[in-house]
Every structure is written in structure tokens, then in C-alpha cells.
Design goal:
The chain contains twelve helices and 20 strands. It is an alpha+beta fold and about 475 residues long. The strands form two sheets. The chain has a twelve-stranded mixed sheet, sandwiched between helices. Strands 1-2-3-4-5-6-8-7 form an eight-stranded mixed sheet, with helices on both faces. The protein starts with 11 loop residues before the first strand and ends with a strand.
Length: about 475
């Protein structure tokens, strides 16, 4: 028998998607009444989805079977909340090992969630914990019979990151998937941008040589806020073989990379599970996975992770030889300056007007940018009035500057203000000897035309896939 920690060690706090909190723990002998109460709170549909019949109650024999477990052949977890001083079960997940028929150990997995707590992440967390325990206990494959109408459970399987084998008959989907073993290496958070930089650089070089990738891979992490981790590296014998990075913006973007010679070993799945767990901890329900269009592995990785394609962006880079920056732009004279912390309130208002966003939210975002030494915000003014803003990621230790968030006041649009603002900032950054890049959605023809006319050229294209956490 595998060395199982005491069931009490399985307890974990779960941040739900509505901002509340639940506890995921092992089922106990004293849970019989709580399980019975939880059953009676289920709707008839949920009962039928779980038991394939219109049961009215759990029998004493069933309650014993569900609570008196060995935590080896039969493992059960519950998700609970406290209401009125009482602990209430709102979700149940378990696996039961099947009778051995071959060298691989197989178990059946099942779970049910209180209807009031659907779509809050309870089922997903129970599933992940049960799979993790099963793998630790030496289970090689999990199976489940799921009614085709049970879309919630089917979605959890589809978004699990595992390769599913599904057969359908009589309105039931039999889902089977191998969980294998965890890869033998070490997964660790990288607290600073430089901590894993050398190993990640070698990993990127190997991938670029193998796949011919041209653009940046979004793998340099932003400075994390307190209590957050933006990069995790997987290594074996001190060699970085995989990395996942999170970038926070309007939404959190995720980029992952596994060494070409070490793919299909579970490293990518472990990286993705870790990133999803970090995002759930932050209260996020979705993230965007970024894959370079020319990547062989990216689209498959997104598909296995349950990703849904959302949009594509071109990565563009300025060619100094073709950028029209030899002289000052014609027309009205624009003054350009770099913002400082004293501009926070005015910038919050200007960003709000330019992008039609809540001013309070924009003010908080601007304050964070102004405190980040790797970020610059430029203000363009006409006759003393601020009419345009442009943000640039330009860390002191980087030769590259990434342009973001170009906005023009609605009253000044159509007058070439955006072009003049862009050319002014390009003149500053190119004068520092930097490589200047920008990203633009492939269907944004107006912006694409502007950037091409200002000397940008397309380097590569990224695809964005939405993943549930």
C-alpha cells in the first residue's frame, strides 16, 4: 500500500468564484448526517445525474459505504461551507478502485455538487484533488460513466488537460483517461525575473531552433505583487525543462514552454495545473493562453487544456530605417513628457475618457504603472491640454521597449494626434538604442495601417485561447 498521509492532511481552503470560501477535506465517519442532508438539497436532476435513478434518500448501507473508507482503494473528499455555525457539505468527490483485470490499476471517479454551488469551481477542485491522490496511490487510469445531459461534469473532464478516450451508448458517455505519474523533476516558483533567466534562456533557444519561432515568447515575468507568483520553472538535475509565466493586464495571460526533447512526459500538464491553481487563488475564473502561430506544440497544448480560440495578434517591430522620424511631425505642435506619480489622478481621468472605462479602476491601474520602474507613461499635449497617452514597458536592463495602451481623447480623434504621439515616443525610445515593439489584433485594420506607415513590420502572430481555471 502506498504511503498515504493521514486524511486530515488533505484539507485545503478553496476560494470560490463568487468571492466566498469553502474547505475541501477528507470524508469522515461523522459525515453521515451531513451527507444525508446534502443529498436532500440536490435537485431531482442532480440526483439522477449522480445515481442514474430517482432516489429519494441514501440508505444506511450507502452512508456507511460513502464514509467508512480505507483511503487507498476508496478515497472520498467533501467541500464544505459554514452556515449558521454549522458545517454544510456542498460537494462530494471520490474514486473507487475497480477489480484488477490487468497490470494497470483502474478506478472509477464520481462527484456531485450542491446546485447552489454550481459554476463556482467546486467540482473542478474536487476533481483535481481526487486525481492527485489517485496518482499518489498508484492508480494509472480513471473512468467515469456520465449522462450526456450532464454538461457540467463533461466540461470538467474536457477542460482537465488529460487525453480522454470516450465511448457513447444509450445516452451515456464512458470517459477514460490515463493519469500516469508525476514527472520526476522539481517545480518551483521563481520570485524574481532573474532567478531562472539563464535556464529559461537556454530553453527558449532550444525551442526556437526546433520550431523556428521568431518572436518573444512572453516568458519574462512581470514584477509580482505581494503574495503573487508570476513564473514557475520545472527542472531536472538543475536543468530547466519547462516554464510557465503569467502576465497581468486587462486579463491574465499565460505562456508555457517545454523543452522539445521532453514533451509528452506530463511536464506541460503540471505547469498548466500550477498556473491555474495560482490564478484560482487570485479569484480568477478564466485566463488567456498565448501561443505563437508557428509553434507546433502550442495549439495542441491549448486544445488538451480545454482552450477556446478567441483572437490573434501580430507582434510588430520598428525598422529604424523606414520609420518617418527624420523631422518633427507637421501640423499642430505637440508637447511630449513622461508622467510621474503626481499625474496619477489626471491620467486616471484621461485613460478613462480615452477607453471609456471606470475612472476609479483606471486610476488604480495608472498608480500601479507609475510605481513600476519598468513602465513609462507618456503624455502628449496640444496648447497645454493633455490629449493623448501611451504606455511603454521599458525596463532599464532590457534593450526592448514594448508599446501598449495608446489612447487619444475623443474630441481630438481624426486629426493625426495618434500618429504624432506614436512618432514622438518612437523618437525617444529609438534614440536610447532600444528595439521597439507593439502588438495589434489582426482584425484591427485601422491600427495595423497606422503602425505599418510608422515603420513597424510584422515579426510573428500570436493566437489567444481562453482557459477556465
Amino acid at each position: 500500500m502506498a504511503d498515504m498521509k493521514h486524511p486530515s492532511s488533505l484539507s485545503q481552503r478553496l476560494a470560490l468564484r463568487d468571492g466566498s470560501e469553502a474547505l475541501v477535506r477528507a470524508i469522515r465517519l461523522d459525515d453521515k448526517q451531513r451527507l444525508s442532508d446534502a443529498f436532500h438539497r440536490l435537485t431531482g436532476t442532480s440526483v439522477y445525474f449522480r445515481f442514474f435513478s430517482n432516489k429519494k434518500a441514501l440508505t444506511e448501507a450507502e452512508l456507511e459505504h460513502f464514509t467508512e473508507l480505507d483511503f487507498y482503494h476508496h478515497v472520498g473528499l467533501v467541500a464544505t461551507v459554514f452556515r449558521g455555525g454549522q458545517e454544510r457539505i456542498v460537494g462530494v468527490g471520490r474514486y473507487v478502485e475497480a477489480t484488477p483485470e490487468g497490470p494497470e490499476r483502474v478506478a472509477e471517479i464520481a462527484f456531485a455538487v450542491d446546485d447552489e454551488f454550481h459554476h463556482l469551481g467546486v467540482g473542478t477542485r474536487l476533481f483535481e484533488q481526487i486525481v492527485r491522490i489517485a496518482r499518489t496511490q498508484g492508480i494509472g487510469r480513471l473512468e467515469a460513466d456520465v449522462l450526456l445531459d450532464n454538461m457540467g461534469m463533461l466540461e470538467i473532464f474536457r477542460h482537465s488537460g488529460y487525453s480522454l478516450r470516450t465511448t457513447i451508448g444509450d445516452g451515456i458517455a464512458n470517459v477514460s483517461f490515463s493519469i500516469g505519474r508525476e514527472p520526476p523533476g522539481r517545480l518551483a516558483p521563481c520570485s524574481t525575473a532573474g532567478e531562472c533567466a539563464t535556464g529559461v534562456g537556454l530553453l527558449v533557444a532550444a525551442s526556437q531552433e526546433h520550431e523556428g519561432l521568431d518572436g518573444t515568447l512572453h516568458l519574462e515575468p512581470a514584477a509580482p505583487r505581494a503574495g503573487e507568483t508570476n513564473q514557475f520553472c520545472y527542472s531536472e538535475d538543475g536543468v530547466v525543462l519547462g516554464v510557465v509565466t503569467l502576465w497581468s493586464g486587462a486579463s491574465v495571460e499565460l505562456a508555457a514552454l517545454v523543452h522539445p526533447a521532453h514533451r509528452r512526459k506530463g511536464i506541460g500538464r503540471v505547469l498548466l495545473e500550477t498556473a491555474r491553481a495560482e490564478c484560482r487563488r487570485r479569484g480568477l475564473s478564466t485566463i488567456l493562453l498565448v501561443s505563437e502561430e508557428s509553434s507546433f506544440a502550442g495549439p495542441s497544448f491549448a486544445q488538451v487544456g480545454g482552450g477556446r480560440y478567441r483572437f490573434s495578434e501580430h507582434l510588430m517591430e520598428v525598422d529604424p530605417a523606414t520609420a518617418p522620424l527624420a523631422s518633427a511631425p507637421p501640423g499642430e505642435s505637440m508637447a511630449l513628457r513622461e508622467a510621474d506619480v503626481g499625474d496619477s489622478e489626471a491620467l486616471g481621468h484621461l485613460f478613462s475618457v480615452c477607453f471609456d472605462d471606470p475612472e476609479e479602476w483606471r486610476r488604480g491601474q495608472v498608480s500601479a504603472w507609475l510605481r513600476d520602474p519598468g513602465q513609462r507613461i507618456y503624455i502628449g499635449s496640444l496648447d497645454g491640454q493633455a490629449v493623448a497617452v501611451l504606455r511603454a514597458g521599458a525596463p532599464a536592463n532590457s534593450e526592448t521597449a514594448d508599446l501598449n495602451t495608446l489612447g487619444v481623447h475623443p474630441a481630438f480623434r481624426g486629426r493625426g494626434v495618434g500618429r504624432r504621439m506614436l512618432e514622438h515616443v518612437l523618437r525617444v525610445l529609438l534614440g536610447e538604442g532600444r528595439t521597439v515593439r507593439i502588438e495589434v489584433q489582426t482584425d484591427n485594420e485601422k491600427a495595423l495601417s497606422l503602425y505599418l506607415s510608422c515603420g513597424f513590420r510584422i515579426i510573428t502572430t500570436y493566437r489567444y485561447y481562453e482557459l477556465r481555471t
